[in-house]
Design a protein that fits this description.
Structural class of chain A: alpha+beta
Number of strands of chain A: 10
Order of helices and strands of chain A: HHHEEHHHEEEEHHHEHHEEEH
CATH class of the largest domain in chain A: Alpha Beta
CATH architecture of the largest domain in chain A: 2-Layer Sandwich
Oligomer: homodimer
Helix content of chain A: 40-55%
Strand order of the largest sheet of chain A: 7-3-10-9-8
Number of helices of chain A: 12
DNA sequence: TTTAGCACTCATCAAGGAGGAGTGCTAACA
DNA sequence: TGTTAGCACTCCTCCTTGATGAGTGCTAAA
């Protein structure tokens, strides 16, 4: 599609532009990268690259900047993975492991690490618990009208739900229900919760038991919603493309709209592995000058969440892709153990 | 200290400036506020107010803007509480109550409400659990080497901690320890945790019991750290004083530094009730052009956390003070119930 | 004590011009 | 046929300049 020289020039322009944020001229390329041809030749090639859509020109007497198509070609065909040093690699592992004090802290630390390593905004979707296996359920009577339900899932994820009833509860019956429910739910997942289980468990209990079980199941369903966190949002101020407060504002607004963000991330990360969504490939308006690098993470064999980085389209793709992949892998390992 | 006319002029200037963000000239005051004197008289008074430090002048041919001292006088002596309508009041109550699905959601909702009502950045310090009374402790054996400790505090606050041991655990012994610990800890607080309780509880148990209790107590201590959340950070982009990205950046950086922020809030809110810290009264550099309005909130009779709003010194003090006070009160009521 | 009048200051904005980076095109060359 | 030097041309950026106007401080009169 593109011959070797055009590729070299495209790569040189992108890497230069990513570094300087200034349009790149033919002279710069001829001087800095030893391509063995003069600036005039490069000029001709650049005109071709613009015609085929890989480059664009802000105005007639400026250099060229990469288009989304140019970045796409770079990401797919040209870039080489950023080599993190052994030391950095170990540091990442260590940071994630040492922060393990519950699931939330671990994923938050993962996001912090990504934002630190990439100097961009990191986002992380907390595990969708849909497919995680229930390990224990425990009901504790707090007083006559309230019960605390504690649910333990795979990977040490714990959910609590305080339940209040109109009816007075008898501690022994709550205990029996707790045992029965726990036994029945062990090994199932959120997906399995439904009328069948409800009927099965309540068979041996009275009216109050039925009400309680219903409240517990309902309460647990409420707790399953996906959460999304972001970290390092201030990093966008280091990017010249966000010098304009209006842009910064609209991006930050998008990030505060958790629902939007969640949809965005889910759309980006349909398949597993590291995905890159560049500029206008993004559907959301405020993101069309940004790129999104995401990677799924796992518990056991199941995809449970998404880790991502958001920056201007002019980002260090190779570094960001490597960093996101690496942290996601470390997180998966940690959660699986 | 200031005679009636000077007060009126100061109030007029502040209210005008808060609205327009433009320096206020003598003509504007003479025209808009019916003080019954000419602009020349007001000019003289303004010169006096500047000399005594209540006003300042960006440059010689501009109008006046309030100094921190001017705002302080306004907050202490001049402003009247913002009257929220009955409807707004009820809406606030409803929003907070409907979001009650665990403590974290409630305080997060409180912050969201404050940022919404004041168009500024809201911050909230999650309950310091130091003084909250333990109501239940429950240990559940997950497998031979791990136990889940669930601690229920006053106000329905729940803490979980997963504990792993080297030694194999016997389910019955864990149960006994759970019961003993729960009985002993009921009614105490984090402050009381210490060697005495440790010795008392472990008296009747063997080596494994001692290790387990130690791990549980340690684990719970780790969970007691204060958290701080912020909401509505994008609102600063609506303020002309943050048109300059450098300023916006340094403020957002301060907010991401949780430790700084916590110190800031604790310093601001030494006494109970609504407190206002204006501009340079703030020690932190990035905050010297901002004001901070805070209010403590309660569980029962005890102060447990702080709710606050951060905006430019040019903020609607009366509205912000009322909003923060109102939401904090609603939150206290909710948590106390 | 208040006010009208006036000279003065200085931020802001638009217009104009110099400088410079980078291009496209042409013609010569290997 | 591909490459290169040269050159006219474009247009952004920055600086200067001058006009405008808001707002002040001071003075003198009421």
């Amino acid at each position: 599609m593109l011959d070797e020289r055009k590729r070299s020039i495209l790569r040189a322009i992108i890497e230069n532009y990513v570094q300087t944020a200034e349009p790149v001229g033919s002279r710069t390329i001829a001087r800095k990268h030893n391509l063995g041809v003069s600036s005039a030749t490069i000029r001709n090639e650049m005109a071709d690259l613009e015609e085929t859509g890989y480059l664009q020109q802000p105005h007639v007497s400026a250099g060229r900047i990469p288009s989304d198509k140019g970045y796409r070609f770079y990401v797919d065909m040209l870039m080489e993975p950023h080599p993190f040093s052994r030391g950095e690699y170990i540091q990442i592992q260590k940071d994630i492991y040492s922060a393990y004090n519950g699931l939330e802290k671990a994923i938050y630390e993962a996001a912090r690490l990504v934002s630190l390593l990439t100097q961009s905004i990191a986002v992380v979707v907390a595990p969708s618990t849909d497919d995680l296996v229930f390990k224990h359920l425990h009901l504790v009577t707090l007083d006559k009208n309230s019960v605390l339900a504690t649910l333990v899932l795979q990977a040490g994820i714990v959910k609590n739900k305080l339940i209040r009833t109109e009816e007075e509860l008898v501690s022994e019956e709550v205990q029996n229900i707790s045992t029965a429910l726990s036994r029945r739910l062990k090994g199932t997942t959120y997906r399995d919760l439904g009328p069948t289980i409800f009927a099965e468990v309540t068979r041996d209990f009275g009216e109050i038991g039925r009400i309680l079980v219903e409240l517990v199941l309902q309460g647990l369903m409420e707790e399953k919603e996906e959460q999304v966190y972001s970290s390092g949002t201030v990093n966008i101020f280091n990017q010249p493309e966000f010098r304009d407060p209006e842009r910064a504002k609209s991006l930050l607004e998008t990030l505060e709209e958790k629902d939007h963000l969640l949809r965005l991330l889910n759309a980006a990360s349909k398949t597993s592995g590291v995905q890159v969504v560049i500029g206008h490939e993004n559907e959301h308006n405020a993101m069309q000058e940004c790129s999104l690098v995401t990677c799924t993470y796992y518990v056991g064999g199941d995809v449970v969440g998404i880790l991502g980085a958001i920056g201007p389209t002019r980002m260090q793709y190779s570094r960001v892709v490597s960093a996101v992949g690496l942290v996601a892998a470390s997180l998966s390992t940690l959660l699986t153990e």
